[in-house]
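FAQ
Q: What does a multi-component entry look like?
A: The components come first, one per line:
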Amino acid sequence: MNTAVLERVTLAVDCMGGDHGPSVTLPACRAFLESHPGAHLILVGKSDALAAAAGWPRCTVVAASEVVEMDDPVEVALRKKKDSSLRVAVAQVKPAEAGQAAAQACVSAGNTGALMAVSRYVLKTLDGIDRPAIASVMPNERDGYTTVLDLGANVDCTAEHLLQFAVMGSALVAAVEGKDNPSVGLLNIGEEAIKGSESIKQAGELLRAAAASGHLNFHGNVEGNDIFKGTTDIVVCDGFVGNVALKTAEGLASMLSNFIKQEFTRNVFTKLAAVVALPVLNHFKARVDHRRYNGAALLGLRGLVFKSHGSADAFAFQMALNRAYDAARNRLLDRVHDRILETLAEMPAPSAEPQTEPPALAASR
Amino acid sequence: MNTAVLERVTLAVDCMGGDHGPSVTLPACRAFLESHPGAHLILVGKSDALAAAAGWPRCTVVAASEVVEMDDPVEVALRKKKDSSLRVAVAQVKPAEAGQAAAQACVSAGNTGALMAVSRYVLKTLDGIDRPAIASVMPNERDGYTTVLDLGANVDCTAEHLLQFAVMGSALVAAVEGKDNPSVGLLNIGEEAIKGSESIKQAGELLRAAAASGHLNFHGNVEGNDIFKGTTDIVVCDGFVGNVALKTAEGLASMLSNFIKQEFTRNVFTKLAAVVALPVLNHFKARVDHRRYNGAALLGLRGLVFKSHGSADAFAFQMALNRAYDAARNRLLDRVHDRILETLAEMPAPSAEPQTEPPALAASR
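Then the predicted structure of the entire assembly, as tokens:
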């Protein structure tokens, strides 16, 4: 496998996406360019909104006349707004005929359903992949990250889909974190192989077979708490289950954070205690700051697409740019492609799904 | 509906169950008796282990010669250990022929799979219920509780099962929290009715129909974060999804708690800050103390069975006793029965499942 890094990386950025648009994306792009002296950006959006970026070094502005709103139905993004910043940005990672793509990865904070549908339509899926998946990282007790997929692109996943997610997740972690043989856990409701639904049990069998032939480092079943324990590098699950787990964790974190604030602002004594504890609390807060984990990968497409949280601020959006840059520089697309070929060559051929009418994305985020 | 409280409540306690057995259950029972002057207990276990309880007021000791271990397979609990403390305790809530049951609810910290299987075998399910469910509460931002079910007894739930869970959950919250018409949310990956798998969409239709005929207060779809926001009183989900959500929350809470400890013990300055912040941190800790939420209800059986966490300490086990007492005193069993009759009378008859060979419980906890 070719593990040399790409010397020149260009990212295409949908500057209009997300809750805040250019007021967040432009400062993030500026900061990103400053911290990555070798990187190039293609900024996509309405010309007037991007006027501030004129003359920035290593930067090209590409005009797009439309914007996909956060609440636009997938059909509108796909069929009506053909000159949207989201779609034009995604198109930058599609290779020209017999040529190179303008960019090696695309980043958007736009509506997840629209981004997945447009990416799937414009870029198509890789051979051997039925359904692209959304992968993101969560912090763990080992002070590392656990990569979880799928987080909501697919419901009712079959065992073959889960195997494909495991292969793609392994390629992602190998590329971005430099781990040669990352471990994979299958999210279940008990460690024993007999637990879970039929499709989960079958997925366990496929994953064990892939591990036996040396293509995957399969740990076995894991449970919800293992995501935060860091038991495995990767946790594979159905998109419905992954989305519920992610949002449950977000909800709990938000509640605990509010409770801590309430406790420290209860009266004058607790406020004094807060002043004394502030440096410690800030250190804790930075450690679990969800903005640091921003940037989900849409895996299984013939091009790299990264999704920032819609509510991301400039710091969070810059993290998504960093993540896309690292993935592109480490040739994630080639790695996913190679791993799929290696692993799936020995597996039963999955049924092909039509690509011209991508289904609406299962989850909103 | 008869909402008068029961004047005399007796709980049957499996004193041998859990990681700690009588060293935890007996002190908890003693404290419970002191705080509930009208309550009676039937303590079940090995005679020598329960010798300390001889002569306690309002207390009967019933001997059982065997103990279901935490790692015993369900088959062992069901077919080999017929004189286990778990089974004898469950049998106390089964009415004698043409008579009363010895106890109105049973509490055990034993192995969840064994408890569900034995309860299902000894007590049978209520008419109209295909599968019993496990319901427990999680804290929410409104300083209340959200009741979630199923937490792992069933995987691959149909729409009808989810409707049954909604009915049983409503009866539980009405009985224990005194809310006449508690709201029900269907756990999904988006608020829109078109989201989710086929069975979830069908469940949405059944729940809307039940709401339209006045039998349920159905709010609509909710997402994982709504559990902790307290958007609805009850959240209904497949046991696989519920178990993953519960364990994910447990894992995140454990990680955050460890991180806070690490930050406050980093050096002499942070330790000083900890001393100052201690009262505030302790107040926070008490507020989110998971021991306060101990005691899951096994709903849908012809008798009330409550499951304590296996690792519960005496304080947590006492909370499970309190919960079982409140449910029994408020005639939870009658309420579940009445609500099922009311709601399901207008629904398509669910397919009956055989009761003599209860399937192994899906999840371990």
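Q: Is there any commentary attached?
A: Sometimes. For this entry: Residues 40 and 58 of chain B are 5 Å apart (CA to CA).
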